[in-house]
Amino acid sequence: MVQPEAGPIPSRRGPKVVALGGGHGLAASLAALRLLTDQLTAVVTVADDGGSSGRLRREFGVLPPGDLRMALSALCDDGEWGLLWRDVLQHRFASAGSLHDHAMGNLLIVTLWEVLGDAVAGLDTVARLLNARGRVLPMTSVPLDIEATVRGLDPGAPDDLTVVRGQVAVATTSGHVDAVRLLPEDPPACPEAVEAILDADWVVLGPGSWFTSVIPHLKVPGLAEALRTTKARRCVTLNLTPQQGETEGFSPEAHLEVLAAHAPQLRIDAVLADPSSVDDGRALARVANDLGAGLLLRHVAAGADHHDPLRLAAAYRDLFGTA
């Protein structure tokens, strides 16, 4: 079968930016970055095991499509055509049958994977359908499981360690996550994702679920090596609030320290945070500096726990202008 041509042809406007993450955090970052550049690539985690994505993953043995769908939707064209297909992708069925709560976009993506026999070609096809302002890639070609070492899962034994497996289980744990790893341990990196990172001007990590959306990229050997060797500058965008369960009680400094512990060779050039989420700016600046990064504080919040796309875009514009 003849496969479609590779993804959207960039218009050469703006810097080459790669955004890493998953879920709502990555979608927020993409909604801002798409205002600054057409040369945008999203590299998406593929460890989701819940909801519609988890059901399709278990039934067909495919990558979980949900986070990929959300990233594509965030990059859709603002015209009537793009917005219509964004709504189609995001539509969820409500029924008493087996289609209940499946997202239409998940079904479409899995269909294209079966028809084309190639994950990247399928995603590029959906991107063209949306007139997407950028490209969406999986971080690896195989579905992943996240396994975490959790401390104090039993309140009566606060120092005991427990192994928790699965993205949903790790994201909702009531214990303290000490470390995460991927299963399989050495998944192959998506070649197009590696190429995009090596060719980028900027790489953006976060915001998003720290242990289940951001850090997993650093545990894929091919991506980790590309992030270490790329000439691109690297920005970490911190969350507005800790995530209940996964990073509950974490300070902004703790987020950076955990990142460094999982990728000790990774150099960071900039840390972006909202001042409302920072209790001690000097402490955060010190930890950022230890990673080689400068700290940029900008008001980027829309409410308590959502990033405002326009404010975030303005912060990224200021940051990229310092390159």
Automatic annotation (TrEMBL):
Predominant subcellular localization, coarse grouping: cytoplasm
Keywords: Cytoplasm
Protein origin, superkingdom: Bacteria
InterPro entries in alphabetical order: CofD, CofD-like_dom_sf, Gluconeogen_factor
Gene3D superfamilies: CofD-like domains (3.40.50.10680)
Localization of this protein: Cytoplasm
Signal peptide start and end residues: none
NCBIfam families recorded: CofD_related
Function: Required for morphogenesis under gluconeogenic growth conditions.
Family listed: Belongs to the gluconeogenesis factor family.
Protein name from the UniProt record: Putative gluconeogenesis factor
